[in-house]
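Q: What does the assembly look like in three dimensions?
Context provided by user:
Components: four
Sequences:
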Amino acid sequence: MFDFLLETLSVLILLSAFALMANKRISSYIRTFRIQSISIALAAGIMGIQSSQAEGRFDFLIVCLLIVALKVVYIPHLLHKTYANVKYKVEKDFILNIPIMIIICCGLVLFSYFALASIEGLGQGLLNLQFVNSVSVIWIGLFFMISRKKAIGQIIGFLVIENGLYIAAMLSTNGMPLVVDLGIFLDMLTAVMIMGLMVFRINDKFDSIDIDKLNHLKG
Amino acid sequence: MELFLPVLFQASVLLYLVGAIISVLLRKREKINNLSANLFCMAASVLGAAASIAKILWHEGPLGIFEAHSTIPFLSLVMKVDNISAFFLLALFILVFCVSIYSIGYISHYIGRRNVGLFNFLYTTFILTMILVFTSTNAIFFYICWEAMSVFSYFLVVFESEKSENQRAGTLYIIMTHLASAFILVAFLIIYSYTQSFDLYGSSGALPEMSKNIIFLLFLIGFGTKAGLIPLHVWLPHAHPAAPSNVSALMSGIMIKTAIYGMLRFVHCYLGIEQAWWGLLILTLGMISVFLGVAYALMEGNIKRLLAFSSVENIGIILIGLGVCFIAFAHEQVLLGSFALTAALLHTFNHSLFKGGLFLGAGAIQYSTQTKDMEKLGGLSKRIPVTAFFVLCFSLAISAIIPFNGFIGEWLTFQALFANILPGQTGIDILLILAVAALGLAGGLVIACFVKFFGISFLGLPRSEQALQAKEVPLTMNISMGLLACLCLFFGLFPLTILTLVDKVILSIGGSTVLGELRGEFFLLFYPLEIAGNEILPAAILGLVLVMIILTLLLLRMFGGKYIERKYGTWDCGYEALTSRMQYSATGFSKPLQIVFKILFRPSRKLSAEGEALCSSEPIKYTTTFSSIFEDFLYSPAAKAVKSFSKKTAFRIQTGSIHNYLIYILVTVLLLILYNRFF
Amino acid sequence: MGLLLQIIPVITVALLFVIKKNRIMHIISLSTSSLLLIIAAYLTGQVILYGTVEYSSLGRFFYIDALSIIILDIVLLIAFMVSIYSVGYMEEEIRLGKLAKRRLRIYYILMHSFLFTMILALTVRNMGLMWIAIEATTLASAFLVGFYSDKNALEAAWKYVIICSVGIAIALLGITLLNFSSLNILEGRLLLDWTALYEHAEFLQNSSLRLAFIFILVGFGTKAGLAPMHTWLPDAHSQAPSPISALLSGVLLNSAMYGIIRTVAIVNRNEGSSVYTGRLLIALGILSIATAAIFILTQKDYKRLLAYSSIEHMGIIAVAIGIFSPLSVFGALLHMINHSLTKSMLFLSTGNILQKYKTKEIAKIKGVLKSLPVSGTVFLLGLFAIAGTPPFSIFASELSIMISIFQEKFFGLGVIFILLIAIVFAGIALNLFKMFYGEAQDKNLQPGDGNMPGTVCLVVLLLVIAITGIFIPEGVKELIIRAQNIIIG
Amino acid sequence: MNNLIYIFLQALTILMLAPLVNGLIRKMKAFIQKRQGASIFQMYYDLYKLVRKGSVVSEVSSWIFKATPYIFFASALVAAMLVPVSTIILPKHIPGDFIVLVSVLGLGRFFMMLAALDTASTFGGMGSSREAMVSTLIEPTILVSLFTIGLISQSTSLSQIMLTVQGAGFPLAHPVYIMVFLALLIVIIAESARIPIDDPSTHLELTMIHEAMILEYSGRHLALMEYGAAIKQLVFMTLLVNVLVPHDQIIAFTGFLALFLSLLIYFFKILILTGIIALIEINTVKFRLFSIPNMAAFAFILSFLGILQYFILGGSNV
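A: Here is the predicted structure of the complete assembly.
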């Protein structure tokens, strides 16, 4: 029953990644990201309950709370603020048109399946094809960064990668040791804050957050 | 001997070190600094020269001098002297002695203007590195010294760095020589990978046949570049003129010979000659260098560039000897090979003397006129007569004119070729005959070239104010040139003195003696030189010439009575306004040959007159420029191609768009995953 | 004692928050770095005596062995030099008005937290923590890269953060897989524990380990500046303040490479051969060298040129690790040391040049030797050194790497390797040497290199690399050999 | 000691004969042109006259200008010592071989060219630069042809060569020798500044080479230069006739009579050669300066074909 839930969630996460890919507006990026984070939090919570029943570990629950606090509440809010502050007109943000990008993403999913299929012991117990889903979320996140021109888009992409990583870690190995998990959260938080700060600065200097304008350093 | 000789060598090396250190310490006291550094060099050279002669005459086999091992793997300093090293060292020490005397005077015009301390430091260490190159027994240590030599000489080349052409010359030089030494390094490492040792005196038995050929080619490229072998010579005519003249004397006199040493040491002694085509290749390249080198020299208007090109030619002569030697050894004809080797070694020695002298002479010209441009010189034989006389001697020597030492080398080379032409090896024979022809043509061109060099810059009327104001050079400079001139004459008259040394050297590397027994009752007094039944008596020839001159004078006195002389202006067709601009210019002198060999120089001329008609009385400007085939068709296109390629790719890769950068990462990951799946 | 290593920087940062006066800040930073250096020396002694330094407290968290102490020593030595140099440099910057007085505080805070993260990365036992520390280095140095917050600096910083974070994220995936591969062998508290992983390397699950290696290689490779993930490096190095460029190039790259080496050790042990990792490392290494060579041949900006040369040297190290013979690993470690010292020296001297000429364009600079007698000379000699000219130390390490390549009879590789290095030399000579000679354009440029203590540092470094080119102290050699044994086993 | 005497003897022979040869050539030309022509001893008279005159020296010039005539003359004489006029008085040890010969002549030429430049006159420069060209182009031919003959007799010493060739009976019938003969003929014409390479009898700046170089000379200096040139010419002629057409093998008996006879034959051969040269001079016109290279190339090809013949015929059995 738990496994079933987790599977659905992982599929949901993958779908949310696709949805993100299909989004046009920054506001909708953030919304989709929030949804994704929520589902991750759920997954963490489920695993937390499971493990607390089984072996009385609580770290997952803590992590779950952290996710809710950071990825569901704080970071999206931060991004919203940033997005509100930069005077930013709606304009075409992506380099390819959406259908093609979706197709490429499908390709990435296939590829990550192909990549991970070599690992023996895949598909038994907890570690089933959810792992593939979550890894493909990483690639999609990376591709999202590639495909979006605006700074915020890139931040989101990075966050999606983080999500993918996190879910992968959680599903494949029941999560890292708690210290590591906390550390990762800390890092991610600072990273996002720094990026956000830089977005402001870029906005001042280049009076746009279109990072295609950042192309002076060549050769 | 065993105990005494190494100490002598060590002492000389030590003295160089001390000289270097002192010249750094006495940075402020420039006069003393200059004096002390050069005196140390002279003392060291005397010791060294004595040691090397003693080594060759009275000691067989390698002589250990110094050995030290570092904590870094494969870094060990092993110095040994065997006869080859000793021979090259002898040439080095003799030249260094003279050049150091010269420097005392020559460098004096730096005092107050440039950092003399730095110069002397570089000068001394440069010599030191050359000594180490000749004595190092460990391949890696050899490479290190080789590189150090290049670097120090680079700094000397760019010493007068305010001129941008010097900087360019230096850069070209350091780049080419560094690339070349990369080839040498590869060769060493291939050797190591088979023999597991860097010992130069070790055996190359473990090397497979194929790899030997490759190694030979690597060495040829590596050392050929240093030697200025055409088509790898392009750095030479730029670098040698750029350096201060005493340094260019060392560079042309000894440094390019390190390459000859390398070929001997690594190809002849270490690898051992197996294929005849090695020799053929060297011989062919030598011929090309001989002809083109002197041809380009003849066209030069800049005295030091002229001398530099002529170095290329002389290296060519040496390589012809070396090539013939390799061919002969490949056919196991030791005696014939030894002829050729004798010729090569002797010419190496002689060239270091007269080319060194010539560069010193050029330095003297520059010292007294501040110009290297022949079109600005002229009439110097009246203003600096002593220098003029010595330069004349060197010019005769390099033109292989009896009784100077240049001739002996030339004669031996011809004898070597002659002896090696054996019926039944048709291809090689034809090549050898062509070599004879090339040497002949070159001989003619050399005479033309140095008649131009001496005649234009020392004779006639001064072509510029500087030449008119030329001031006599310091005594030391003349002394050193005189010394070299005497040596040139001495070794020209009594070649046996040096040939006995050469003979020992060749015996020590598996050759056989070439000095036949001496015949001729009366002429024995004149030290005949007898090779393969052909004997010459340079001393006798000189004696006869002198006798003839005296006789002529006497007879003239008898028949013609007293000699009456009337001073008068040069015949001016009644025009009565003969100016210095009406005499033949350097360009004009070489014009006929330039037209004959148009194909080589592809001269481009420009006539420009202020007036519209060329026949008007307005001054007319005639400029003609030559271009070197290799620089135009080989090097600059290659350089351009590489540059543009690098520019293009650089901007294709580092586009400045972060998207591309992320794509790189993604693609890399995907590729590596593929690798993981398939391997 | 060892824990001080991690505590002191934190304290320093905390102090710097409250201090007002610039002079005191200088003093604090100086004293910190010197203190750290002393501790490092002590620890080195410990390692030489006992092999490793570890504390059972805090869950086996602190761990130093020969490998990490070598790199740690490099880090702290260079940090020391840099903090000496920074005093003069920063004062000059403030004098020139390129910097507001109050920003010195930020500079030092960032610098020391950067230092802290790097020390952390080198002193933890747990791979996960190591990952965190390395990611943290990026974050700490991001604002240092964009310190002069002009357009270019900002651009460089942005690219730096984004690319490195993405790369490091991929590394995290690798770590996860590493963890996964050990799930059935190690119990909870030993998870991701390097020593444990290394001891049980044979039993780890091969397939996932291989995959893990790939991701870690790409991830840490990004940080170490291996082509084609190197793209952030030239921008960051050229835009950062010169002392920071010195830190980035001399220290950061090494600590990333350290992560790769640790992983390689595990994987090769598990594989029983170095073929799998070797192929990848050599491929990426040669690619990096080639890229660097191409870029150096026509480079207009001297700091960028040096950055590319860092890429080249990282490539060399990668190749050496790929060969994975005792000699090559020895060479690699030696090369890490030599490269860091030489490169940081070069970057520091570019600082002087930059302050004198106020431009990074090579074409606009003439007569460095006249206007900066000492640091100009150091720079020129340093260029020869970095290009692998004997008798400087870089040559020694490159030599042993080359020999190891030929020992394995990889002739093609060896030839390409040597040729590329020669080309790099050609590029350096072609582009940079013209800076040194002639006369500076603007006549009112008074000769003499300011920043006395900094210049002294330069000379000291030059002496060090010149001497270590001829021989290295027994102790250092001993350490390196131990590290080599740790890696090869 | 004998060697010395022999050498001086043959130097003396050539010294005596050289002006006469010039006279002969002039006479023959005159004869063919149906002119009276000057006496064959004219050159002796001229030399005597010149020797007695004082000489004008340009004040621009340096010591080289005055030293050159003596060096040139002496070098020509020494060259004369190296080429045996007859194998009857052949010295055992000639102090040099043909490489030395070339070098010794080079000494003279070197100084002559310098002296021409020394007076800062345009003519001098012109002369020496042209001389440089001609001599350069002709040099390979000399060496290769001499090498060919040297190879046949496995020695570079001229005396040795002559002895060997005498053994070979009547060599001129042989292709190798024919080629070499023709090549050397051209060499002689070039070296002795004759039509079609150069024209000794005019002073037209468009054409002159040798004359331009000695234009500044007068008095005894001029005499020495002219004389030296004549000797040089005879040396080359001797080389040609004695090496390629040896004659002493037909002399049966020995002693002074033999010597006399051999010298007679030698003189006779020279006579014929002068005839040939005279004919060439009559029947050709002076070439353009820049068609000289073609002629030189032709000469070189002849000599090279010669040596090819030698190889084709398998070397020794010539």
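Follow-up: The longest strand of chain D covers residues 55-58.
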